[in-house]
Design brief:
Elements: E1 2-5, E2 18-21, E3 27-31, H1 36-56, E4 60-65, E5 68-74, H2 80-85, H3 95-105, E6 114-118, H4 124-132, E7 135-140, H5 145-152, E8 160-164, E9 173-178, E10 181-186, H6 212-223, E11 229-234, E12 237-243, H7 248-264, H8 268-271, H9 281-291, H10 298-305, H11 317-325, E13 330-334, H12 342-349, E14 352-357, H13 364-374, E15 377-380
Parallel strand pairs: 6-7, 7-8, 13-14, 14-15
Antiparallel strand pairs: 1-2, 3-8, 4-5, 4-6, 9-10, 11-12, 11-13
Amino acid sequence: MGYLKLKYGCNPHQGNAGLRTGGELPVRVLNGNPGYINFMDALNSWQLVRELRQATGMPAAASFKHVSPAGAAIGTPLDEILKKAYFIEDMEMSPLANAYARARGADRMSSFGDWAALSDKVDEATALLLKKEVSDGVIAPAYSKEALAILMDKKGNAYNVVQVDPGYMPGPAESKSIFGIAFEQDRNVFVPGPADLENIVTKNRRIPKERIPDLLIAIITLKYTQSNSVCFVSGGQVIGCGAGQQSRIHCTRLAGDKADIWRLRQHPVVLGLKFKKGIKRPERDNAVDMYLQDCLTPRERAYWEEFFDEVPEQLPREEKEEWIAGMDEVSFGSDAFFPFRDNIDRAYRSGARYIVQPGGSVRDDIVVDACDEYGIVMACTGIRLFHH
């Protein structure tokens, strides 16, 4: 029986924490001392990137925080605008590094102190990118000698590096305990493919070939996001994820606001912001996020002004709305049906033109009519993807 003792559980006062399997553990700690929540993030995120790799054939990465992805992506090349928005314009990039930069770039505020998951052997370029970011740890199937040396040197030799057996497959059942009572169920083994997008229920029935990976990224990301959940995807990466809300419209508003910020980070004025010398990446992320907010108090404004050599005037709301309106060809997914059309109205404002969801609401006809008003294509998979 495999067992790994952990320093504590979800909180420091919860002792007797560990990992246990009936056979050999499929993970090895190569560096650091990962905790209970670290491993919850590691094992969920590993499944996500493994399935993204399987579904798209491309290297994949995820940035996890508190058992939900802040971002997930495949390793499509980055243009110069995104490189600058993600603060990597001076770095040599590999496909795997591109995947992590995209995953991290979805919501850089939420990715602060993340757990990274990588589908492929970690190379030097990806390790150098991880070294620059504030991150708690990483899980991957293998590491090059150079990459492992870089990662082991991070955080004063305390960075958590975990290797997972890529061939490991758990049994068909899973269980967990709540209040001393064991819950059991079959594992969710559904991995989507293009065939799951064929049940198109809208008048517009054309999904361009290049949008199919984005829709698959949406479905797989939602499978490992605490429910209720929705996400926006563009160009091979999540750009806004709304997780764990009791109301689906609140998920959509949260994810849509994050997608809007992702878009605004690429505005020429934002890309041209002049930071003081020595300002670190997290502070730059905070400053940009506050710069993009409306109605800052004098205290908030004084805080972010400290980061700039030249204090910029904030973008007028009308200019921000015009820039966001230029975002289209975005894919949008939901882990369960839409109960009302308000989700479609909000998603369209953040560029959603292709939607995937299970369907099955008594108001499906109202939701389909909303999509038809906007010319949106919507596919229904028939598979709900709640994750708790």
